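Lecture notes, unit on protein representations.

Consider one protein chain, 297 amino acids long.
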Amino acid sequence: MNQIRMHTGSFPLVRDVGMTLTSEGWVHPDRITDFNVFIFVIKGQMQVVEEGTEYILRAGMGFFLKSGLHHLGTAGTIPGTSTIWIHFSEGLQDAHVPERVEEGSLQPFQASRTYKVFGPVDYRFELLLPKLVELQEPASFISKVKDLYELYCSAPLFGHVLLSIKTMELFLDLYRLHHDPERHRMTSKSDAVVRKLALYLEEHWESLLEPDRIRAEFGLNYRYMSTLFKTRMGISIFHYHERHRIHKAAELLKSTSMNISEVSDKLKYTSPYYFSRVFKKVMGEAPSVYIRNIYRM
């Protein structure tokens, strides 16, 4: 569907922002750009063709055009259609990710409901932006898009940086609205199993991963659950459990007087040395460095 993949460790780099009010005979420009385009229709109807696929955009719809593809308009745009658009590139990679990331090499983005401390690994995900979104109650989103346009027009100091940050916020809002859990609940039996298993792993963070215990708890083949979990979550059962345990360990180091050995023992690691290796892999720094960097009241 020619969707845009954003790296969650960076933000979109805004080129420019504008508004369009169409007149009789207006059509979308026939072009191939080296930047992406986000279009939001405030009122009216706009027609866009991308690589031969026609899209009809109505009021309350947001749409992403991907760079490097052929876009044009033919007919179908209504005179008086009002839109706001953003031209942007995907953004820069952070220092912990190779400069050139092959498409599909990053894991899909997944929300962390329980983490309170985040390491570099938590930003090594891709956000697959929806191609087309229709908002049922767009008033609040329209207000944010207009604020973004006003920011672009006012050109404050570091305005381009602020624009890019707020555009990322806007895209995250759009992503959340598109994946509203109240409208897009996981209803299949397999998805219910994945949700229940993730909750089980989070609740048993003090224990080592025990496949036999999980098999008995769920009454399902462990290999089947492993495949299902990896498919739905984009991460293995082991690594999901490991990451959650290390985030809990970081919380203990931050909010209690426990030392590294005590936390290692609490989480049943074989040794503080092994615990430190896993901690550094997940958090990007050794627990001793993490402790030094903690701001204590």
